[in-house]
Amino acid sequence: MTDAAAARPRHRAVAGSEPPPSASGVGALEPGPIAVLPHDDAVVAAVLGAGGEVRPLDDVTRGLVWTAASGAGDLDAVLAAHPHIAWVQLPWAGVDAFADVLRRHRDDGRTWTSAKGAYAQPVAEHALMLALAVLREVPHRVRANRWEVDERGRTLFGAEVVVVGAGGIATELLRLLAPFDVRTTVVRRRDEPVADATRTMTEAGLGDALARADVVFVAAALTEVRATDARRRSTTVGPHRDEVAMWVSGRPARTHASQGEQRSLALALRLAAHRLVTERTGSAPVLVLDDVLSELDDHRATALLSHLPTGQIVMTTATEIPAAARVDRILRIAGGIVVDDTGG
């Protein structure tokens, strides 16, 4: 890329469908000098180019553009020492790093703004790229060294897509998804329709929407997701909500593996996670296996026991303990009483 091409604007801000917060109770801002902290030449040039006056922080400063993605304590100190600052611009769309500062100054009459929507286009582009990579099994394909005839990979065309949020990223995602002829459900705080979405619903319908979804994009601010989680009393975002697709002999395990094979795959993941944590931390965590033998035949049960890692393992079972088990202590529950049956 040439210097001239790199200097051209590569994307534009996208406002999104969510209305801005109410500005009721906030008076007109008094014009005055703007301080840029920490100093950033590009930001200073942008303020000057827009007709603003940039000066070092002093008693006549009326606006503050904070350019650091961190340093909430430093920002708090600046605001406490300069109560005449009436407007504060934060550097990114997200404001989580400054949540405590915002809470402390929420009633002091200041106007707060952020870069919401400024990065909507590149973030939406990145999200679409990740979705296509997962659907088309790109991590597997790039490592392939021969032509494979299999059923791997799914198409995005005609898929059921759920987008959580209706901000700039969601708006741009809907535009990028249009050529794929997908059916999109936007989940937002209000039930007002979103342009280019097939349907719009509130958070109350999130569970039903997820049950039908082929692809889910979470494009809501983390602060909004936390509020949703608090109302639902469960977490809607995180690795525990991920769906792991596993294959046996080139076929999806979900539809082609036996119950014993599916159980063995799940246990293999658990043992792999235990090994990874042990290698990364240098300390083996306690491995808890709850009633894992009831769905395994003798051959699979013996194989599991032979592959258990060293360290502390707690296993519950309602069946007889296989002879291959190396047991240090046995506790039985009989008549509601825990009995130490080690050696019994």
Describe the model.
The protein has 3 domains: 26-113, Rossmann fold (3-Layer(aba) Sandwich); 120-241, NAD(P)-binding Rossmann-like Domain (Rossmann fold, 3-Layer(aba) Sandwich); 270-340, no CATH class. The longest helix has 23 residues, at 259-281. Helix 5 (120-135) packs across helix 7. The mean pLDDT is 84. It is α/β, with parallel strands linked by helices and 344 residues long. The protein has 12 helices and 14 strands. It starts with a helix and ends with a strand. The strands form 5 sheets. A 4-stranded parallel beta sheet has the order 1-2-3-4, covered by helices on one side. A 4-stranded parallel beta sheet has the order 7-6-5-8, with helices on both faces. It has a two-stranded antiparallel sheet with strand order 9-10. It has helices at 3-7, 41-49, 72-81, 99-104, 120-135, 138-141, 168-177, 206-212, 222-232, 253-256, 259-281, 298-306, and strands at 34-37, 63-66, 87-89, 111-113, 160-164, 183-187, 199-201, 215-218, 247-248, 251-252, 287-290, 313-316, 331-334, 337-340.
What number of structural domains do the residues give? 3
- Looking at the overall shape, the CATH architecture of the largest domain is 3-Layer(aba) Sandwich
What is the beta-strand fraction? Answer: 5-15%
Multimerization state: single chain
Strand order across the biggest sheet? 1-2-3-4
The CATH superfamily of the largest domain turns out to be: NAD(P)-binding Rossmann-like Domain
Number of strands: 14
